[in-house]
What does this fold into?
Amino acid sequence: MIISSLYIAWHYVVFNKVRTATLVACITLIAFLPMALQLVLTESERLLQSRAADTPLLLGVRGSALDLVMNSLYFDDEVPEILTMQAADEIGDTGLAYAIPLYVRFQARKQPVVGTTIDYFDYRNLRVAKGRMLALLGECVIGADVADEYGLEPGDSIVSSPETLFDLAGIYPLKMKISGILQRHHTSDDQAVFVDLKTAWIIEGLGHGHEELNKTQDKSVILKRSEDSVTANARLFQYTEITDENMDSFHFHGDTTIYPITAVMVVPNDAKAGTLLRGRYLENTQYQIVRPTDVIEGLLENIFRIKSVIDAVIAIVGLATILAIFLVFALSVRLRQRELTTIFKLGCSRMTAVRLILAEIVIIVLMSGIIGTGLLYVVQANTDTLVRILIFS
Amino acid sequence: MIEIESLEFHYPHGEFHLSIPHMSVSQGEKVAVIGPSGSGKTTLLNLIAGISRPQQGTVSVADQVVSAYRDAKRRDFRITNIGFVFQDFELLDYLNVLDNILHPYRITRALKLTPRVQQRAIELANGLGIGHMLKRFVGELSQGERQRAAICRALLPEPQLILADEATGNLDPRNKGKILDLLFENVDAHDATLLAVTHDHELLPRFDRVIDFLDFRSEAAA
It folds into this structure.
């Protein structure tokens, strides 16, 4: 009898496609939205917290702690106030911790270019899956996602993006040679292009390479020549790629301790050293030391506060939809009065009629369940990407 | 086959009143019921089938006092003993012809849907000339084809009594004759009884007997 009821109900729902599709869509959305939201938030919480927990302290210029953390940990394109290499040296000089400078300001093919030192890779436990680690000026290693997205291999090149299209006199794009591809780490590191700090400074134009003025045959590039110096005009050719042939011509002007960085990852020797360092910077008017976990917890509190509002809205909309669905079923029973009269005449009992309507509800709910589960599966398989789009973009 | 005594029926709302002092139909008889519109012909069929219940009097079918039965028992008796061809066919538009014919077997416990029943449904449909349209939906059928599907559904359980309410209404004369032939063939084949409401006086000579509702009125008045 149950199979017969399901058989008849199935034919009814298939015959009334529009009504069925509408009901299935309503039920699916009402059930799917809160679950998908929960999935995305749980994953974002996990991603944010795990990365934050892996980073003991961050030093940056006093200002937005959130910008500092988001830029340093997730390579967000919101660049915090710039500090100098001197700040990193000062941390090292305390003997309480070692410092890993970060310069996250530029992009290459819309991916963040992270200027740092070899210590970063050791600390984050990043290993090279293909090729080799950074060794020379102008080289880069790329995250697994960058390699996949652009089909890049060791030996290929990637060009840094100019900060603005109209900055004609400023930063030249630098063609960087890919020395290696990092193992997938399921963190923001998978989506970054890593270069040595000096390479990052070359992208900024603080270091450069050009033809030697003493040897140039083109006299028109010489602006002024004295006994101890030669001044060239803008016609002097500057290299946009660092090769074995021109590497020696690259140089930096001035004191590199005042060169820019965006943050310093501070790795204290122990908990006590960390506390001491935080105490020392408590009253510092120029710099701040933040614990990323504290900042992320604050961010999550805000996200979950918003989530509870969204949950409440979904609950109200859901309740209204469920009521509307009940109304649809109640109206449909009324509209089907003639059909019900027919089946009663044919010998159907009231109980069987109720069973037929329940079978229809079961089928519709089941269809919604299957579609909702499918959608949840898709969301779950892509939570990492979704979180990056929704939270980090 | 059918015995009605001192029957009084009226609907809870409205002025309609049906009074039948006595009516009898023998086993194997083919009887036509005629009368003006609104005189209660369809109501009479519903009372015999046990769909409605009289306020007074008795309705017996095959020596069973159907009117005394409780709802569930009346329903089971109807399903297994009476085939009803409804005036407006009562087919479900979301089922195909075969599923419509088999529908009573899927909504009642009294009838068991077996492969043999399904085979018989196909044979019956072939016999009624709708065997090639079993997979079609009701909306794709002509009036005559719908009528045949309804007859097929009524005949499938091989009932002792067939009640036909305007079974040939809305049909052209050629199809009327055909439908009646099919009904008569099946009734004769199973030695069943046929009680058919009709407005079509041309068909009356083909029946064994005619019951005129005007007679009941004069009888009741007397």
Q: What stands out?
A: The mean pLDDT of chain A is 85. Chain A touches chain B through 21 residues (CB under 8 Å). The first strand of chain A starts at residue 57 and ends at 61.
